Amino acid sequence: MSSSRLEDIELLKEMQRPGTGVNHADKSFFFRKTKAVFSGSDAVSWIKTRLECDDEKATETFERLLNIQLLDVSLRFSTMSSSSTLFSAPSESSSSSSSSSSSSSSSDSSSSSSDSSSSKSSSSSDPIQLAIEKMDRGQFRFTRKKRLVVVGGGFAGAMTARLVQHDLEVILIDKRGFVELTPSVPFVIGDDAKAPKISFSHKSFLKALDVVILKEQVVRLTNPFTLETGGGMVIEFDFLLLATGSFYKPVFEGPDVLYATSADQMLLANQRLADPSVTEIVIIGGGSVALEVAGQIAVFFPHKRITIVAAREKLMERTSTTVHDSVIKWFSKHSPSTRFMLGERVASYNVDEKTVLLSNSQETLPCHLLFPCMGFTPCTDFLKRSDFFSSALEPSGLVKVLPTLQIEGFPHIFAAGDITNIAEEKLAQNAMNHTAVVSKNLCHLASVSNVPSDRLRTYDTDERIMLISIGPRHALMIRGDRIVMKGAVPMKLKSST
């Protein structure tokens, strides 16, 4: 961390000390009270006195403290609406120093104009004067809410942050800066226009004053109340939500290996599939993602030959034989050339010869494009670097959670989404159901100390409906081990979610 950053942090801490810091007070309006409110001119005046500097230096310092994300301290600034009637105007004494600079810096422009409106207009041409005037009008406060750090900006993390953003100070850490509708990723195959429609910037729905979005990656938890990022930030928290999701372990690599984990990968797939020389497609896996990718390719690129290699003898192994038979029937009708190599595994992939070798039959298959859709792995490697946290992890990397979705042994830390050890399908709808429980429990714990565990909301693993698309116009609605409905209606439901 740079020396200037450390100096800013120390100055911010000093500004917040009662008695010697910036003069601030609670402001009330009817039955509402906002804590630690101060005016911009109060802060500029304090900095000017403390640093023994001029208005320009003090203004620049205050702007820097407002704009940079000082996450190393537990308290930070929030800017209040200047038009709010909740706050009184700055006092004359607090604004005198800044106004004196204002008159001197704009004397030339004011003398050339006879009315006050011209004077205001001309003073705005000076950036320092404009900043001072803006700060004089503005109102600020030190936040006093409890801090929640959310690691992971997918379904579970982003939606929880959205639900609690007005009740807690939220820091969302995600290296991408947006949430992508992962169930819709296969729909991008054959239709590039779908890609921008399935992703949303975190800033588009996290707009509360006490929200900070960091495009960072967490390296480790240094202790139960502090974490460290790859950029060197050390961030303290009152509550932590782990929602880092999962990924397909990259067993095979190469320019013709694509993973159905993002719209970007599917856009690359469209480019490769448009090449007439790419005719042999191999998809590894017999689950929902593998079948959805195969269905899209079968419809939009009907001249490609698809081979699905699955380790089990049955597709969608945790469902009934009826589901397996329905999938086989659809491909027999819409893509007769599709082959199913069930009870097989891909032993190796030859990048140069563009072939795969099957482990059981030792058969070599041509492979111009490979889609591995297997090897589900929770994104929890960074947690393994923290010795104190090892007891909360299963050997598979899944996080042990209580029915309240708190982590065993750490009541202030929650987990949601694919990384939990809950025995259920890792679906987006289940992740969304996790957020309802986590957000309620976080708000309850933040407002009431020492909440008994029996007063917190618990998560129920009820049997839920699953929608699996096979092609762009056909889907299966599955509940438990049976098909409830299939065809265009379930597809309409899936495409609208």
- Count of individual helical segments: 13
Could you give a short account of the major beta sheet?
6 strands, mixed
Low-confidence stretches: 69-75, 80-125
* Classification by helices and strands: alpha/beta
**Terminal CA distance:** 44 Å
Radius of gyration: 29 Å
Describe this structure in words.
- This protein is of the alpha/beta class and 497 residues long.
- It is built from 13 helices and 27 strands.
- The protein has helices at residues 3-15, 40-51, 55-67, 92-105, 107-111, 116-123, 127-137, 155-164, 263-273, 288-300, 321-334, 428-447, 488-496, and strands at 25-29, 32-39, 77-80, 139-142, 147-151, 169-173, 178-180, 199-201, 211-214, 218-223, 226-229, 234-236, 239-242, 246-248, 280-284, 305-310, 339-342, 346-350, 355-358, 364-366, 369-372, 376-378, 406-407, 410-415, 465-469, 475-479, 482-487.
- The strands form eight sheets. Strands 9-6-5-13-24-23 form a six-stranded mixed β-sheet, with helices on one face. A four-stranded antiparallel β-sheet has the order 1-2-4-3.
- The protein is elongated.
Structural descriptors:
31% helix, six-stranded mixed beta sheet, alpha/beta
Per-chain topology:
Layout: H1 3-15, E1 25-29, E2 32-39, H2 40-51, H3 55-67, E3 77-80, H4 92-105, H5 107-111, H6 116-123, H7 127-137, E4 139-142, E5 147-151, H8 155-164, E6 169-173, E7 178-180, E8 199-201, E9 211-214, E10 218-223, E11 226-229, E12 234-236, E13 239-242, E14 246-248, H9 263-273, E15 280-284, H10 288-300, E16 305-310, H11 321-334, E17 339-342, E18 346-350, E19 355-358, E20 364-366, E21 369-372, E22 376-378, E23 406-407, E24 410-415, H12 428-447, E25 465-469, E26 475-479, E27 482-487, H13 488-496
Parallel strand pairs: 5-6, 5-13, 6-9, 13-24, 15-16, 15-21, 16-17
Antiparallel strand pairs: 1-2, 2-4, 3-4, 7-8, 10-11, 11-12, 14-22, 18-19, 19-20, 23-24, 25-26, 26-27
